[in-house]
Amino acid sequence: MRHPRDFFKPLAVGAPEPVREIPVPPSRMIHFFDPSNEKMRAKLPAIAAKADIVLGNLEDAVPVDRKESARAGLVEVGKTADLGGTPLWTRVNSLESPWVLDDITTLVTEIGDQLDVIMIPKVEGAEDIHYVDRLVAQLEAKAGVTRPILLHAILETAQGMANVEEIAFASPRMQGISLGPADLAASRRMKTTRVGGGHPGYVSISDPTDAEDLEVGRVRAQQDPWHYTVARMVDACVSAGILPFYGPFGDIKDTVACEAQFRAAFILGCVGTWSLHPVQIDIAKKVFSPDPAEVAFAKKIIESIPDGKGVHMIDGKMQDDASWKQAKVLVTLAEQLAQDDEELKAAYGF
Ligand SMILES: CC(C)(COP(=O)(O)OP(=O)(O)OC[C@H]1O[C@@H](n2cnc3c(N)ncnc32)[C@H](O)[C@@H]1OP(=O)(O)O)[C@@H](O)C(=O)NCCC(=O)NCCSC(=O)C[C@H](O)C(=O)O
Ligand SMILES: [Mg+2]
Question: Does domain 4-288 bear CATH number 3.20.20.60?
Fold first, then answer.
């Protein structure tokens, strides 16, 4: 284990100094695009104008015969596309794959100053992050990259889940963690073919209203199979000072269920999610920007309790030091998002 005092020294001579605080720009959605797809590359400036973050995906969903062209396409994006200041991320291939070394080497040396975050799939423990951390530092030094590239882990194996805390604390480069529900479901041998979201078999059932007939009057409600995982990921991230994200929702046509899944993650503490299709950008924006009515009530709490202490009744509800802090979370997020968004500024009354 590294000595805490060494944590902020570069891991290679000439690499930029590690960051002390993780930057928190609007991060409501990480929009995935396939850089081997010329049409998607051409549309990227328009997508970047709407999305908080754009991510060139090199891993799953990119066919084997397009791995090289996806990498080259992302280099072209980094060198030529006008993203108007929207952060550019990548998801590289997994660490056991034959492509990842070339992914990281090419991207850091060719477009290291354009790349904000490298997302690492299927992270199983701190050792995976340590490997990438040192490699990226060596490449940053070689290429003269001026600010450190951050790392983001995807939780998508049972082993990774068991080690989520050590992953979150593994390096000062750690920016955040996302849930990878498809790979995680497979790793855990969960019985679902869905990419995120609920399942009609995962339900709670009310008691029967007729003791003789067990079918009568019983209400079934689908539960969220990702509740435990997301909550644990949020705790690991917050305790390490990094950002938790939900992941993909694969049923692109079911915008209603997508919104419900995103909202559950938002309420549990996630700062954002992935969008796989342009339609999911607007859903994420709506869900991960706090509701103006809640923000108005939170502002009322803060205004009514200027020192944030003691017990108060506001609109019939008890408020105290702790609920003042809850209100602060909502208002701080709303203020941050409203800075670059006139519509939200008006909606929140700032
Ligand atoms: C899911 C898709 C394959 C659907 O694509 P398509 O059938 O082409 O959808 P549409 O016809 O509705 O598309 C309309 C137009 O929008 C463009 N489009 C579609 N998706 C994107 C996008 N992500 N970014 C930019 N533009 C997009 C289409 O080109 C159409 O354009 P036009 O013809 O000009 O009108 C597709 O959306 C897609 O490939 N999405 C990304 C999928 C992806 O990245 N998957 C990997 C992440 S999820 C994962 O890996 C699982 C995870 O790791 C885990 O373990 O859980
Ligand atoms: Mg995956």
Answer: yes
